[in-house]
Amino acid sequence: MSFFSFAWNWLNSASQWQGANGIPIRVGQHLYYTGLALLVAALIALPIGVLIGHYGRGGFIAVNLANVWRAIPTLGLLILMVKLLGFSYLTWLIPLVVLAIPPILVNAFEGVASVDRDLKDAARGMGMTDQQILRKVEIPVALPLIMLGLRTAAIFVVATATIAAVIGFGVGGLGRYILDGLATNNYGEVAGGAALVVVLALLVQFAFVGLRRLVVPAPLRDLARADS
Amino acid sequence: MLVPNVVDGLRSVPEPVRQAATAMGFGTVRRLVRVELPLAVPIVIAGLRVAVVSSISLASVSTLIGVASLGYFFIDGLQRDFSEEIYAAIVAVIVLALGCDLILVLARRLLTPWSRKQGGRAMINAEGGQLLQEQAI
Q1: Closest among A180, A156, A166 to A91, alpha carbons compared
Q2: Contact (CB, 8 A) for A55 and A120
Q3: ipTM of predicted assembly, 2 dp
């Protein structure tokens, strides 16, 4: 049997869709891990990226530091957290936040730093203060790239939240299916769990496309499309 | 991850440069190989750096399904309650990733000798390409 028929047979059995270990609950857990990690990462990385872009200093260092940061192995960090913190929610949260920070930060920095100089001069000529320029000009113009960074991070985290199940002890999410299926040689469960992660990642991608339409000012949308 | 990146790199070649190449009698293929690809190198390599570093750090996950990798030491360290092993393996993964990153940076310097003369600004612009390609990951 192929991957698809394995996954399909498993997904089709009604018992998978009910109870405390049912697919809806697991998907909810998975989205909860993803959402919380993304939120925390955005709260850390967006202000830093925007400020570095605004003041135009340290950009080279920030971009290269982000590349070093990417090299941190998420699984290693997760296991280290298991050793250091035991089974708290920080154990899965910290590695996922670390994973999400580089794309958000680099895109926020690039977005703000690449705002047309003439645009900023025009805003200043209209009497805007430094703060107003940042709030009313630079951030709106940078929004397509900022959203792009958030989307990239979200897809990374959705796919990687799978390994949170390594912790065990009540940590669920879709990775539970993959690890449990491997442990019991139930390959239908493995394939089904993996298929669900893929579907979820695609849905997150579509959700961000929609979200970008909502938050990016209409005149900038063509720009946003050209960028992607 | 890499395909849109090459597209971005080729798109970044200024139209006048393309026209100049045509005016000099370059055909489509020769223009692509001799003019457009070399000019696209900074953006292509910027994307390659992100891809290489992320992949190396992600490859340690393979240990979960029993495929040997540096990730083995994470699980081993956890099972033996041996933190130093986990620290060492994390450092090893980072060093490996950065070593490959360094090779790519050197390759870019070799392939784009003109960007060295313009000083730091050109480098930062090249990194700007990293941003563009990031959307595609």
Answers
A1: A166
A2: no
A3: 0.74
Q: Where are the beta strands (DSSP E) in chain A?
A: none
Chain B CB contacts of A77 under 8 Å are: 90
Looking at the complex, does the CB of residue B108 fall below 8 Å from at least one CB of chain A?
no
Tens digit of each residue's pLDDT (9 = 90 or more) over B74-87: 888 888 888 888 89
Asked whether residue A143 is domain-assigned, the answer is yes
Q: What is the spatial distance between Cα A27 and Cα A170, in angstroms, rounded to a whole number?
A: 15
Which CATH number does the domain housing residue A177 bear? 1.10.3720.10
Mutate which of A67, A156, A228 to test chain B, going by most B C-beta atoms within 10 A? Answer: A67
User: How many Å lie between the alpha carbon of B25 and the closest alpha carbon of chain A?
Assistant: 31
The model's pTM is: 0.81
Calculate how close chain B gets to A188, using CA atoms only, in Å: 15
DSSP B6: H
A70/B57 touch (CB, cutoff 8 Å), yes or no: yes
Determine which helix (DSSP H) or strand (DSSP E) holds A150, and give its type and residue range.
helix A139-160
CA proximity to A164, closest of B80, B64, B89, B67: B64
Contacts of A173 (CB under 8 A, 6+ apart): A26, A29, A30, A33, A161, A162, A164, A165
Q: What is chain B's Cα-based Rg?
A: 20
Tell me, yes or no, whether A14 lies in a domain: no
B89 C-beta neighbours (distance < 10 Å), count: 26
